[in-house]
Amino acid sequence: MRPGQNNGGGFFQNGFVVLLGVIALVVLLSTSGQMPKVNAALGEVASAIMSVTGSTTAEEEADDAPPGEPAEVEQTIDDKKSATPAKKLTISAKSALKSLEKLGATDDPADNFDASEFGDGWVDINRNGCDTFADTLDRDLTKVVKSKDGCTVKSGSLTDPYTGAKVEYTSKQSPASITVDRVVGLADAWQSGASTWNPVKLVKFANDPLNMITVDEASSSARAGRPADQWAPPDVTYACDFLARQITVKTKYALTVTDGERESMKAILVGCRT
């Protein structure tokens, strides 16, 4: 029952008052010889009582009815400012080391990881009409040729950042020679803080250009999304940039690192020139 409604006790209390009024009216009219008016008055009182009773019953039925489903609110990713990053993302190793010291420690990694929690496929996070996969290929490849839709990359060339190998790509290849990898893998993110996020933030993270990198399909499979204490790029010249970028992503989303990650990152970054 909603606040402000009469409860059952209030209804019967009001009914008792009405009944006393009816009795007084009957006595008054009968002693004055006006019984026809008594019948008319009783009819009006009965109608009034039925009206009140019906109204109360309707309200009670409304309270007893199951609540309706809440209106579905469409949540969108408001990231218009997240334009595709520059072709070359250079992050200082020195700055990354300072940021690494500020990252929290992963004390109790979340389990029950499910990639579907991060959304179903790629989305158009920067509202340019193309999804994140297409934007990332366009950013990272050279000699890019696009289809008429202005998004799909038909062909291009890539120097795989993980291995340094040269890779030629065409959209007709099956299986594809390249893929888009995440600098901080989804499982790593889930275990280091993402398990507490709402669905909108999970999708935003999974499509953040800062966390995207185009790589050779084989090298992506070899990495399998593993964190820094379990994997580093075979091309040591790229390891500094890669780890610095991992730290930048984790800092942006307030994700944590394990003790093993922290030590592995330090061991490589202290030897970097920048």
Task: Summarize the helices and strands and which ones pair or pack.
Elements (H helix, E strand, L loop, with lengths): L7 H24 L3 H30 L28 H10 L29 H9 L1 E5 L6 E7 L6 E5 L7 E5 L3 H6 L7 H8 L5 E5 H7 L12 H17 L6 H11 L5
Antiparallel strand pairs: 1-2, 2-3, 4-5
Helix pairs in contact: 1-2, 3-8, 3-9
Task: Provide a descriptive summary of the structure in words.
There is one protein chain. By secondary structure, this protein is mainly alpha-helical. The chain folds into 2 domains: 8-64; 93-269, no CATH class. The chain contains 9 helices and 5 strands. It has helices spanning 8-31, 35-64, 93-102, 132-140, 186-191, 199-206, 217-223, 236-252, 259-269, and strands spanning 142-146, 153-159, 166-170, 178-182, 212-216. The protein has a 3-stranded antiparallel β-sheet. Strands 4-5 form a two-stranded antiparallel sheet. Strand 2 and strand 3 (166-170) form a beta hairpin. Helix 1 runs antiparallel to helix 2 (35-64) and helix 3 (93-102) packs across helix 8 (236-252). The relative contact order is 0.13. Mean pLDDT is 77; it is low at 1-20, 22-31 and 35-87.
